[in-house]
Amino acid sequence: xxxxxxxxxxxxxxxxxxxxxxxxxxxxxxxxxxxxxxxxxxxxxxxxxxxxxxxxxxxxxxxxxxxxxxxxxxxxxxxxxxxxxxxxxxxxxxxxxxxxxxxxxxxxxxxxxxxxxxxxxxxxxxxxxxxxxxxxxxxxxxxxxxxxxxxxxxxxxxxxxxxxxxxxxxxxxxxxxxxxxxxxxxxxxxxxxxxxxxxxxxxxxxxxxxxxxxxxxxxxxxxxxxxxxxxxxxxxxxxxxxxxxxxxxxxxxxxxxxxxxxxxxxxxxxxxxxxxxxxxxxxxxxxxxxxxxxxxxxxxxxxxxxxxxxxxxxxxxxxxxxxxxxxxxxxxxxxxxxxxxxxxxxxxxxxxxx
Length: 354
What we know:
The protein is of the alpha/beta class.
């Protein structure tokens, strides 16, 4: 295993058993094993106040970890940078970095804050836009002209990733002037709220004599809720109403396979693994330059789901070799791409089958 043993604590902002955050943790743990990092995970249970409390407790331990991994969920983590500066623990942000306003007041990575070594951020704007664009493209194959109407289910309006994803959605739909997104509803990332809100929306559509052609959901859980509401209303998801989600969750992959979902965008949970890569590189290079690393997301659609479903429905992340993403030189550029990892795992699986 490479390098000296390191210790790291991840303050997971989600709930234990919450699909997306479990996926982040799973890839992080697999990479930690590859890279000789002892990883601890504590859970903030979607409570921003608990997130801050847990982070401070970790920093103030007599034997604090070498690295603290934070997610700026609902902008809860930014003030922790000032606190971390008075400790020896290095801070890495993943998935949600600072907002533009926070960056202006808190400073860039490693500039104002000596503890902050960088951030790993997925391209949520492009993902949100791509989802909307694909929904429009597919809907237009059935209805080349005329008005289209739809619903957007967002997660929240505060988390940087959600803000970017929502903006991408608006940009994607704005390309077609004959599309009306009747409602943009906040379903708080869960299927129950999404099902309820979608059911209410469908009742409004029915009473107003309108139509529902497509639903953009900011994650797979909300897409699942929308699908359940459509089915309860006697509609066929994927035929009567197109649905797009995001997360690459096993549930989302299965929905794409059965054609009730048009696509699931994602791969961003691999930021968990790549945070371990950056931790290892920071420890190895004396001349490390703090950086913000942005990486692409990709969509799983009807065209490629058969190839990737066997990997994503029941993933074994320990088969991936995350050491291959480490830098050879600190001035090099990271090539973080979730599709590279999937192809690597497919190659490994195929070799075992020979």
